[in-house]
Amino acid sequence: MHIRGERIARVDRSGTVPDDGSQVIDLGSDSCLLPGLIDTHTHLAFDAGPDPVAALAGTSDEDLLVRMRAAARSALQAGVTTVRDLGDRSYLSLALVEEFARAPERGPEILAAGPPLTTPRGHCHFFGGEVEGIAALRAAVRERHAKGCSVIKIMASGGNMTPGSIPPHASQYRLADLRAVVDEAHRLGLPVAAHAHGVDSIKDALEAGVDSLEHVSFLTADGGSEPDPALVQAIVESDTYASLTLGMDPNVPFVPPPAMAAHVQTILNAFRALNEAGAKVVIGSDAGIGPAKPHDVLPYGVGDLARLGVEHLDALRSVTSLAARLCGVEGRKGRITAGADADLLVTAGDPVQDPAALLDIRAVFRAGVRVR
Question: Order of strands across the sheet with 109-112?
Fold first, then answer.
């Protein structure tokens, strides 16, 4: 492969060494060259500690930006060269977008949502994105577009990290609200990611035409449920991606939120059903939300997906080419091809044979610069 500047100039499989004075990097005959990984759902503003919400509240914007920069660097060192940040405070991730645009080797490309849209005192209201009413929701979408966000995030259902908010199975917005957000975002060329744990919120977000369903847990008032085959088929037949929350550090004990604890296996079964039915599945690690979710955790998610029965090559596509398509960076990211960004991961071993090879890194390149 030949790199010129920040891009891949051409791909040569002949193995011949150029004699044009180009620098040659030999990473070993047993190495595997991959496009850099893409995490479709991360939170650089969360510290992956035992209480990330309290830590966020006790941190100034200045210090939070320092911490977010370190989190982004951690992801890059793991071969995650693009992240979709689906919730921050004060649009701080946009400062990193500008910083890394000037010096790409300092961090992954960040596709930022800014503060997620949520109801008053709703899930993740502490990010500052509280908004209700169709006119206000449309205005909030326009504000994010004007500031330079790459995606709109809306909390279609409740969640697990916000004391006093509604439970994760319950819907926060009406179908009409979701439709207004999608309509305004698509008019401006922005995709919409909908946080959707509950069955009703999944149905509404899907009908509204969101681009990705985040978590897709199929929760009901009684807990987890086996997904309705008709709803699964509707997801498959739509243009909507299922962004599955996978990837955990196996060295850290995982304690699921109380609302989810009894239903983890049911949720995993739902993930399996989505894949088996042919849904467009990507992995959003939700990095930052707890000790088992550090910002370099995405590679573990590929193994998790494989253990759900997904073919190893398809599991890799979920964090490369398919994720690039969802994120609107197809052509630049997710493939090794002429004209693409030179964001690359080199492993000692073939992850198509064993996804654990993603953890044995020999090199990471960002925009043509070796960063590991």
Answer: 37-42, 80-85, 109-112
Q: What are the backbone dihedrals phi and psi of residue 366, each rounded to the nearest 5 degrees, phi first?
A: -125, 115
Which pTM does this prediction carry? 0.96
Tell me the longest C-alpha to C-alpha distance in the chain.
67
Task: State how far the Cα of 371 lies from the Cα of 364, in Å rounded to an integer.
Answer: 6
Q: Estimate the crossing angle of helix 229-237 against helix 199-208, to 10 degrees.
A: 30
According to DSSP, the residues that pair with 83 across neighbouring strands are: 39, 110
**Measuring CA to CA, how many Å separate 47 from each of 74, 151, 254?**
12, 22, 16
Q: What is the pLDDT of residue 334?
A: 97
Are 301 and 61 in contact by the 8 Å Cβ rule? The answer is: no
Q: How far apart are CA 79 and CA 298, in angstroms?
A: 9
Helices vs strands, H then E, count in the chain: 12, 15
Which of 267, 210, 253 lies closest to 234 in space, CA to CA? Answer: 210
SS3 62: helix
Which phi and psi angles does 154 have, rounded to 5°?
A: -130, 140
Each residue of 172-209: pLDDT tens digit? 999 999 999 999 999 999 999 999 999 999 999 999 99
